[in-house]
Amino acid sequence: MGSSSTSPRLSEPSELGGLSLSAADKMRMHLRVLYSADLTKEAPSIESLSTASYRQFMETFDCERLIVERRQRIADLIGHCRRQCEALWRAAGDERLANFMSAFAGDESFWEPRGRSLSENFCLFATARFTASGEEGLADLARLVGVVCGLSAAPDQQSPWPSAKPAPAHLRTPRVVATEAFVSSFDLLDSDSKVSLGRRRNHPVLAFVLCFEDRSMIVGSEDLA
């Protein structure tokens, strides 16, 4: 998030008096407007707030400064996820994923995450976007990258991905603490076994991730034909 030396000062929740809202709701709204691109949208998830009250709430902000603050916060999110999801950034590109991140920050999935980490949660969002546009390869790549991020952060938590399954038994060793696999129609590893989007396969493969005690990972695939 933006540092105190560069981020403009905005109204704090304690200063937003005059609204019939709990302190928790004021804090939630304050955070939402710091990330949402649509400053005209009525506050989501706060049913007791009228349009007039929301306008009153928004008047407590300097919108020009708010835009600067939001730009920095989105840049911080992009920087974090780019470091965690390098393979996805290489395949889809900075501009497109920056647009995804901007949309993600204003989406309910950002505020009510399903992923085991922020990066996995973003990959869930990106996968849905790629799937909706018919880009199956990028969708599968985003899923694989997301699984790696999720297992690395919380190997003991349940997978948020549909039809997730454990890796085949012959791949597991006593040091493996968690596994996850899914079927893909694409090569998702390059010739050096690095995560990368390749060609569509004639036959599907099982992409898998093995997570070890020290949170190191092995990513691989097996032919299903």
What does this entry show, briefly?
The chain is 44% helix and 14% strand. It has eight helices and three strands. A three-stranded antiparallel sheet has the order 1-2-3, covered by helices on one side.
What is the fold's blueprint, element by element?
Layout lengths: L22 H13 L15 H8 L4 H22 L1 H7 L1 H12 L2 H4 L6 H15 L3 H18 L22 E11 L13 E13 L4 E7 L2
Antiparallel strand pairs: 1-2, 2-3
Write up this protein:
This protein is an alpha+beta fold. 44% of the residues lie in helices and 14% in strands. The chain is built from eight helices and three strands. It has a three-stranded antiparallel sheet, covered by helices on one side. The protein starts with 22 loop residues before the first helix and ends with a strand.
Mean pLDDT: 84
The count of β-strands is 3
Q: Helix and strand string, N-terminal first?
A: HHHHHHHHEEE
Q: Output the radius of gyration.
A: 21 Å
Number of helices: 8
Shape: elongated
Task: Report the structural category.
Answer: alpha+beta
Strand order of the largest sheet: 1-2-3
Largest sheet: 3 strands, antiparallel
Percent strand equals 5-15%
Termini separation (Å)?
A: 47 Å
